[in-house]
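Internal tracking record. Fields below are filled automatically when a chain is submitted to the structure queue. Please do not edit lines marked as system-generated. If the sequence contains nonstandard residues, flag them in the REMARKS field before resubmitting.
Queue: standard
Priority: normal
Entity type: single polypeptide chain
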Amino acid sequence: IDYTAKELSYYKLTTEGYVAVIGYAVVTPARESLPRDVVRGRVRQLVEKPIWCPKVGGQIRKEDPTLPAGCLPYGHPQNAMGDWRFDVNWDVSGYELVRLHGTTGYPKGNFWDQETYGCIRLENRAIKNLIDVLGTQAIKEGIEIVLWRSTPTLSGE
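SYSTEM-GENERATED OUTPUT FOLLOWS
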C-alpha cells in the first residue's frame, strides 16, 4: 500500500520475481503517520459484516459528536467499516494501524479526497474483489501487507 500514490497493489511472487496482479485506489492516513518508511504486517483474520467501535475520547468522536455511544453494528448508517475488514498484526512494536476495510462512508466522487484516522479504506466492491482474487485459503495463511511512504523497489527479499 503506497501512502503517497494512495494505491493498494497485489503482487504475486513467481520464479520470475514479483508480478503485479491487481490494484485499487485507497484512502490512507497521512503518510507522515507511518512510524518508519516501511511497515510490514500479516493478515490474522478476515471479518465479514464488522462492527465499528470508535475510541472514546478519540479524534473521530471529537470531530463527530453525533456518533452514538459504544460500538456501531454492521449496517448502521454511521458505521465506517463497510462489508469486510482485514485485521493485521504489524511488525512495529507499539504501532497500531487500525485496519484495512471496505467502506460506503464517502459521497460519490469524494472517496480519494479524504485521509483517515488510521485505517486504510477501499470501496466495498474493491475489497470484495480483492478477497475473491486472494481466496480465503491465502488469507488464512497470512497474506503479507507492506505499507510505504514512497514506491519501493520489489526485489524478492
